[in-house]
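hey so u asked for the seq, here:
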Amino acid sequence: MLLQASSALCTRCHMRTVAAPGYGEKKRKEVERDMASDADDNGTPKMKRKAYEEELERLQAELCKLQDWVKYKDMRVIIVFEGRDAAGKGGTIKAITERVSPRVFRVVALPAPSDREKTQMYVQRYMQHFPAAGEIVIFDRSWYNRAGIERVMGFCTPEEYHRFLDLCPQIEQYIVEGGIQLIKFWLEVGNKEQERRFEARIEDPLRQWKLSPTDLESRGRWYDYSRARDRMLEVTDTAHAPWYIVRSDNKRRARLNCIAHLLSLIPYDKVPRPKVAVPARATEREYDDEAPLRGRRFVPERY
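ran it, structure tokens below
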């Protein structure tokens, strides 16, 4: 509610600025252009950075509580992130894991299978990364590669694809019945926004590594990916392992919506912590421990 009110207030402020006296025609057009760009392709207003960061910090504090609870109860959780290229999977995962322990929240982003892995049972290389007690494993792309990129790009045979769709719901039921909570997110990015993000990656040296030839190929095969998505959802959106779809044209809202929903799916409580105090440094074996460092090679203090 607070965030909606904040967004509405920002919009009203823009409107008052446009109508305020003393603005020339050029300035008025600049402000109107800012207003027009202050929404995604679905017309949803973009969230201001301050409001986003404040809410993200609050949700990340809840993730820390969830982390303690998962350890306390020896829970095992798998979170799968899928979506088109440039849908925002990496940024969402980073927002989730930024403030938590990598020993509890483990991110798995597997490369293309090796020659040996290609001869294994398909899900075998994923299962070795499944969580032990007190762990949450996040798959940045998963066994659903077979239903998406492998299907569209011809990296698997039609027989392998259909066999995967037949077996996947059964395998996921086995996972859930084995005591693992399985949560699946599909990030849905629109055509225009994906194109904009690809173009930004071409120009930005900090993001060029994200753009592969396969990513570019996916632009021309948009509807092939759409049909693969539709079939995947039709077969694998089950009661025991449902898909949750996140609209991701607006990155900030998508991250917050995803984290908030994740927290709602795993019941947790605050783990009681004993009161602690930082102990004083012992002095019985005291010596000048800075002296041995003098004359050593220190990194130049450039900043």
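The chain has two domains: 2-36, 49-265. DSSP finds twelve helices and five strands in the chain.
lmk if thats what u needed
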